[in-house]
Amino acid sequence: MAPEVVTIIENRYKVLRQIRLLQPVGRRVLAEVMQSTERIIRREVEFLREQQLIDSNRAGMFVTQDGENMIEAFHPFWKEVGGISLLETEAASRLSVRKVLIVPGDADESEWTKDDMARQAAGEMSRILTGDMVIAVAGGSSVARMAQHVQPMEAIHITLVPARGALGEEVDLESNTVTARMARNMEAAHRLLHLPDILEEETLRNIQRDPGISGVLDLIQRARVLVHGIGDAEEMSHRRGLSEGIVHILKEKNAVSEVFGYYFNDVGEMVYRMNTVGMQMEHVHTLDTILAIAGGKSKARAILSYIRNRDNYVLVTDEAAVREMFALLESRE
């Protein structure tokens, strides 16, 4: 295929993909986001409309079902042409994880990059689910976005459970809320865990006598797939409302990342753990697949501190985070 033809196809794919991220959207906004002119955008939009890949109403342009199918079919080719496929392979090798999925951009600067990661994560989950299966779902903004993009799973029976109790944070980001929303969109069964995330051991032992709660905790232990984000240690210590004493300990031990109540330093050592309810880190390595979603250049250090040498992990991230992780690795060599 001639280079100029590849360029034309790639540009039209980028326009179609951007419309999906922004829809409904007008030409002027689309031109601004893509840093192009309205004249060029008008030409590309008319071509896409003629091919019935997009349509429009008073609110703006949107992608048709044919357009959605085209995006999915063309995605592997676009990643190959844009060098993303090579970057994914290199990232998986350097991080020693099963697979890395990368979207363009920087989640620190773009809400659309965050949505793109959420779509990729939702698509990946649909590919890894088989038969009767329990999926544990953590809370947080990245997984909450993913919940909006999952699709109904036909012909397989799956049950979703929260990976942990309630943090007392924004309700929409709680594990229970995210699990219920994801289950609804997947048309799947689910159970909820109506407990705070942190409990004293004696309190937890007493509560576990309740058959409803013990049943959910048992399902969490039976999960074969886990979905979670990766947090910055300092940010998460504040969100969890930790005491000044514990925050001081985390700083003293150079905690960098946090994953459902466990804190890790730069070299991946666990330096602190909360007495959390639900999924335990000791159980994670036994799972079939863990899907981790985290992006943004500012979070690269946190991602790198946790994700390395976890061979049952699929990481969904963005290009900015990956390139910053590479820079961090090279600075340590």
UniProtKB/TrEMBL annotation:
It comes from the Bacteria. It holds the Pfam family CggR_N. Residues 83-325 form the Sugar-binding domain. SUPFAM superfamilies: NagB/RpiA/CoA transferase-like (SSF100950), Winged helix' DNA-binding domain (SSF46785). Residues 8-75 form the CggR N-terminal DNA binding domain. Keywords: DNA-binding, Transcription, Transcription regulation. The keyword DNA-binding applies. GO terms for molecular function: carbohydrate binding; DNA binding. InterPro entries: CggR_N, NagB/RpiA_transferase-like, SorC_transcr_regulators, Sugar-bd_dom_put, WH-like_DNA-bd_sf, WH_DNA-bd_sf. Belongs to the SorC transcriptional regulatory family. This is Uncharacterized protein.
